[in-house]
Amino acid sequence: MIKSLCVLGSTGSIGTQALDVARMRGFKITALTANGRADIIEKQAREFLPEYVALADEKKAAELKIALADTPVKVLSGSGGVEECASLGSDAVLNGIVGIAGLKPTLAAINSGSALALANKESLVTAGALVMKTAAEKGTPILPVDSEHSAIFQSLQGCRDKKQIKRLILTASGGPFYGRSLAELKDITPEQALNHPNWSMGAKITIDSATMMNKGLELIEAVWLFGVAPDDVDVLIHRQSIVHSLVEYADNSVIAQLGVPDMRIPIQYALTYPDRFESPVSRLDLAECAALTFSKPDNETFRCIDICREALRKGGLYPAAVNAANEKANAMFRKGLIGFTDIQDRVEKALEYSLPAGEYSLDDVFETDASVREERQVGI
């Protein structure tokens, strides 16, 4: 079990829940980072007294430095400051940053030799080949924090040969608009889309859940994490969010991980693996759950899963392109600039770009991201 922990994105949903686990387990917090929530990270810094805190927003970082002048905490700024925190060599780095902004800190943590508890799915979506190659070269473990990938990871314990795996099955709640037709989605507002039935998450991820893009991103992440083919990952709608994902084996037996929908279970397992401890989460009472239901997703109405699978098949930089299109469209929808169904239309358009399907560099990933956001032809 780890003793020291750096939390990237400490003011977000994943970060604050990771600190709940840290309190219970007594981890030493070495560094905290955030984008711009200086008020929250100041309170966290005063409680945990890390060696460093970093704010990506340089103006707010300067204000935070003044606010924390009476403490021994050192304040860093900008994306470089976040990467420096990830590079400290803590026993583990939990990356809870949202979006492609988490990619460079992921690589910084891997290169430092810290175990990586990964909640930033975009690291593997945009640059899976680079991230997994770097981790293999450095011998750095990547432990999944997403509830679905943690469930698969837990269900694979004891599997000695990847050839024994027939299929990975990701579960999805279906979001707030399960069962609605495409016509019924036209006038959805951001406020409606942010009302998730089961999970408490940040705004971007909650919208991704409503469009089913989150499940498409998780499909890409699963392919890289577990070394399977895109067509060997399926998705099932499971409205109750009790079965978090499943693994089907060669003998047709299926192993699943169940629990109440609380992210502190997978967060703690990633930080204490391979051991298990009492957690701050309530017990699962199956007798109180009533029915557990499963159905196939409506991929005609919610196209993002199939779009992401196609991006994987095309390979190379296409996953980075669809991720960039989604990040931009998601933000535009939350600002009221486009409609709800416009999100998947814009994501699908990214498949039309002319991109190399083979090897790529980190610079290529960020050039693709910038080009797609600016809606210009990618110059790779």
Write out the strand line-up for the largest beta sheet, numbering strands in chain order. 4-3-2-1-5-6-7
CA-to-CA gap between the ends? 43 Å
Q: What are the secondary-structure elements, in order, as H or E?
A: EHEHEHEHEHEHEHEHHHHEEEHHHHH
Q: Return the structural class.
A: alpha/beta
- Basic shape: globular
Mean pLDDT: 95
User: pLDDT under 50 segments (min length 5)?
Assistant: none
> Which range best describes the helical content: under 10%, 10-25%, 25-40%, 40-55%, 55-70% or over 70%?
40-55%
Number of strands: 11
Detailed description of the structure:
- A 7-stranded parallel β-sheet has the order 4-3-2-1-5-6-7, with helices on both faces. A 4-stranded mixed β-sheet has the order 9-8-10-11, with helices on one face.
- The radius of gyration is 20 Å and the shape is globular.
- It starts with a strand and ends in a 7-residue tail after the last helix.
- By secondary structure, the protein is an alpha/beta fold.
- Strand 5 (92-95), helix 5 (103-112) and strand 6 (115-118) form a beta-alpha-beta unit.
- It is built from 16 helices and 11 strands.
- It has helices at residues 13-25, 38-48, 58-67, 78-86, 103-112, 122-138, 147-155, 182-185, 190-193, 203-211, 213-226, 264-272, 304-314, 318-334, 342-349, 362-373, and strands at 4-8, 28-34, 52-55, 74-77, 92-95, 115-118, 142-144, 165-172, 233-237, 243-249, 254-258.
- The longest helix is centred in the middle third of the chain and has 17 residues, at 122-138.
Write the layout of secondary structure elements.
Layout: E1 4-8, H1 13-25, E2 28-34, H2 38-48, E3 52-55, H3 58-67, E4 74-77, H4 78-86, E5 92-95, H5 103-112, E6 115-118, H6 122-138, E7 142-144, H7 147-155, E8 165-172, H8 182-185, H9 190-193, H10 203-211, H11 213-226, E9 233-237, E10 243-249, E11 254-258, H12 264-272, H13 304-314, H14 318-334, H15 342-349, H16 362-373
Helix pairs in contact: 4-5, 5-6, 6-11, 6-14, 10-14, 11-13, 13-14, 14-15, 14-16
